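Reviewers of the previous submission asked for a worked example of the structure-prediction workflow described in the proposal, so we include one complete record here. The input consisted solely of the amino acid sequence. No template or homolog information was supplied to the procedure at any stage.
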Amino acid sequence: MTSSLPLRHFLLALAVVVIWGSNFVVIKVALDVLPPMTLAVLRFAIAFVPACFFLARPAVGWRNLAGYGLFVAVGQFGLLYLAMRSEISPGLASLVIQTQVFFTLLLAVWLAKERVLPSQWLGLALALAGIVVIVGHTDGTTTPLGLGLVLAAAFSWACGNIVGKRAGRVNMLAYVVWSSAFAVPPLLVLAVVVDGPGAISAGLAAADAGTWAAVVWQSFANTLFGYGCWSWLLARHPAASIVPMALLVPIFGMGASSLLLAESLPGWKLTAAALVMAGLAINLFGPRLLQWRQPPARD
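From that input alone, the workflow returned the following structure tokens.
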């Protein structure tokens, strides 16, 4: 699927995927010092304030921008950070959050009455089997609460996908930046309520250069560079040449977590990853293969 890409464009897409996958390790580094909601506030505030002076607000309604900001920034990342503080390992979080693909599919069926192909049901069944494997092996590094929070984060991401789709063809980088303006106020409230003023003060006081580098990395590398380059590539190449590379995100997420944080990869984790990844691959490639195998229509 990537053979049609010029080498430098392929390497750029690969760089984005590496950043998105390894960012789960960066999140964990930041969460070792900062409370979860405080980290979310800092990430989206820093992503918005510099970039808003260089990127014009996309031509969509404020309500749409607010919805996307609430679902993705508050729902997705707020819940993800909360889970990753102590309830789930970074590698598994990078895998489970990808179930957003199937939540998006089910929401499209419910809201837009889209038809689900048999191959997509098969993909969903395989991914669910992978989640069941994780449920059966929750331990001190991954708890049922953590798994539930990440699944809820994936569902919120899927809701954001539906809202973003209704925005139409817009500059996705500008869209993400301006939607962040609606994320910061509710995240501030949640930081005070969930983290608490004492934990916020202690976290900010304890933050060192590494902590702030992790925050800035999420704002600029993960959000601005990642979304900007991904949107740039999608504008120049067919989605079928770019989107499949997102399947590598959990691979880099689990690999980076194992390499840098010594997260163990026992057989059950690899089995769960194989099932979820197979489900994602079937969901992505299955409809195209069926379309390719259909005989051409006769005149």
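The chain has one domain: 7-292. We consider this example representative of the routine output the project will generate in years two and three.
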